[in-house]
Design a protein that fits this description.
The complex is a heterodimer of chains A (406) and B (157). With 406 residues, chain A is of the alpha+beta class. Chain A contains seven helices and 19 strands. In chain A, strand 4 and strand 5 form a beta hairpin. Chain B contains three helices and seven strands; from the N terminus they run αβαβαβββββ. In chain B, a hairpin with a 5-residue loop joins strand 4 and strand 5.
Chain lengths: 406, 157
């Protein structure tokens, strides 16, 4: 099959990138296993020595664990003996040793092989050869970086420092939510979506759709084109932030073009939308797409990490971790729990997204050389102070094409 | 302590009618099965067992139940599908001010263009009260077993 990007460039997105197996394998190698930082955990999930959290870098299962000295270390989730997956739970405590259940190879929290049964044989028979060296059979370490409460990992030695990777502008959005206050996990939701993983990132970068698809957002003014908004990106175009201020339920030039705007709709229990300002500045929404596997969500008082785990070109898992701050009072926690009704696999807003990207994937089937059009707001890559634009998509695919040589 | 057969029959009817209402898409009737004050939650087994407070769905009043029902009927965008709720192994005990009911549930989902699949399986941990209008849910907590929801969770459980 011909895999050539359309001549129009980044204002077109060919559908083969969502369905082609070779493209997908190249993505795993160059993106997830390449020089990128993937989100794996929140530090508060690992409060004590031995606490571990399992995560994924692309399809590769990894885990991070707090060692005896309090540092967080990362390893492939695979025994050095016969390759068995060591942890099947998402979180837990290793105790003093990381032990594989198959032949009980046992590692310390630094990943060093400490012991294995029958190494010296039984009654003088069998055992490992005399030249077997435990030092050569530790767990495979991976680089990890923790910053202000979140933990990232990379499989590549070429990955730049976390700060250089994200860049100063994007770090500003990162530090806005991960501001150093201790975090508290409120709970998890996970879903398996029949769609290409890139569609999830696109969904956040596609700023127009929120004003059209999400009647709930539109009607109650949580996120809408007529509100003060900004699109901000890094130099690669791969990381981005969508920033917006909550508006009112009013009829104006923007809302009259939205079939989905319902001026007369009222909630019977409006506590769902009651929020308080908790971050500096005017923004009430910042949706940060963090290349390649994280969406950091701040919509009013609901905070979550959405972690993308690809599973072939046609499917991915989305792991939501809802959190607040350890210092939150009961009223704030209740607000976060209540507003979480908008998000997640059953979210009054997010369920539209899960459904529509699955429907997009259906549309891509046997699409041949067909391509999508991303020309809203022009054909350039300049940051905007509005959201009537596909600029974050164009910039994203410009960056993607460089990484993928497409 | 076991409950009288008559009450048990009434409870069986309540759960059957509840499942029927949801499967027929009559979400506007959903809140009729509850009495104020009420609490409805869908929560993963993981969050439930680890005492994490997050719910996948959380309605704290009949108004919130009606708001969600309206959203599902008029505001949300999702593909055509049918649901079938099965409830079994109902066990009820009298408690202070309410009847504590536990039951298993399984929900089948049939998406257009797809074969039928199990959407979720789990347990109801409910509090039922007698009102002038009959038995009503004071609290309905739906604890689903799987760590992963296939697709999106649209219909109430």
């Amino acid at each position: 099959m011909e895999r050539t990007w359309p001549l129009q460039g980044d204002s077109r997105v060919p559908y083969f990138i969502y369905t082609d197996g070779d493209i997908y394998r190249r993505e795993l190698e160059r993106i997830f296993e390449g020089p990128t930082w993937s989100f794996v955990a929140l530090e508060c999930e690992l409060p004590a020595a031995g606490d571990y959290k399992r995560g994924f870098i692309g399809e590769t299962s990894v885990f991070v664990v707090r060692d005896a000295g309090g540092s967080i270390r990362g390893f492939l989730n695979r025994c050095a003996h016969r390759g068995v997956q060591i942890y099947q739970h998402d979180t837990g405590n290793a105790g003093r040793a990381i032990t594989c259940p198959y032949h009980q190879w046992s590692y310390d929290l630094e990943g060093r092989l400490r012991g294995l049964p029958f190494r010296g044989g039984v009654r003088g028979k069998g055992g490992m050869p005399p030249d077997f060296r435990v030092e050569q059979h530790g767990l495979t370490p991976i680089r990890v970086h923790a910053r202000s409460g979140a933990v990232f990992a990379t499989l590549s030695a070429e990955t730049p420092s976390f700060e250089d990777y994200l860049g100063e502008k994007m770090l500003g959005f990162y530090d806005r939510v991960f501001d150093g206050r201790p975090l508290r996990v409120l709970g998890y939701s996970r879903q398996r979506l029949p769609a290409n993983w890139k569609l999830m990132l696109e969904n956040i970068k596609d700023t127009c759709h929120a004003s059209l698809l999400h009647v709930f957002f539109v009607t109650f003014g949580l996120f809408r084109v007529d509100q003060p908004s900004k699109v901000r990106m890094d130099e690669t175009g791969l990381h981005a932030a969508l920033i917006s201020e909550r508006g009112r339920q009013e009829v104006n030039e923007g809302t009259t073009q939205m079939q989905s705007f319902k001026a007369d709709l009222r909630l019977q229990d409006s506590r769902l939308l009651e929020s308080v300002r908790e971050f500096p500045g005017d923004a009430t929404v910042v949706m940060h797409t963090f290349w390649p596997n994280l969406i950091l969500q701040q919509q009013s008082n609901t905070l979550a990490t959405r972690q993308i785990v690809p599973r072939g070109p046609n499917e991915f898992d989305l792991h939501w971790t809802f959190f607040g701050y350890a210092e939150d009072d009961e009223a704030m926690t209740q607000r976060r729990l209540r507003q979480a009704n908008l998000m997640g696999p059953g979210g009054l807003v997010s369920l539209d997204d899960g459904e529509i990207i699955a429907r997009a994937q259906d549309g891509f089937r046997k699409a041949g050389a067909a391509a999508g059009v991303v020309e809203m707001g022009g054909r350039d890559y300049a940051e905007t102070d509005h959201m009537v634009t596909d600029v974050a998509l164009r910039a994203f695919y410009r960056g993607y094409r460089k990484v993928m040589d497409l | 302590m076991s409950i009288p057969a008559e009450l048990r029959n009434e409870l069986e009817d309540l759960y059957a009618e509840y499942a029927d209402a949801l499967d027929s898409g009559a979400f506007e009737c959903w809140s009729d099965f509850f009495g104020e004050p009420c609490l409805y939650r869908i929560v993963s087994k993981e969050n439930h067992e680890r005492a994490l407070p997050m719910s996948l769905v959380r309605c704290e009043s009949m108004g919130m139940l009606r708001d969600r029902a309206l959203a599902l009927q008029k505001l949300n965008v999702y593909g055509p599908r049918a649901w079938r709720h099965l409830t079994s192994h109902l066990r009820a005990t009298e408690a202070a001010g309410h009847i504590a009911v536990r039951a298993n549930f399984a929900v089948f989902e049939s998406l257009h263009d797809q074969t039928t699949r199990v959407l979720v399986a789990g347990r109801y941990l409910d509090k039922v009260v007698r009102t002038d209008a009959g038995l009503r849910f004071r609290e309905k907590v739906c604890v689903y077993d799987s760590a992963l929801i296939p697709g999106s969770l649209v219909a109430p459980l």
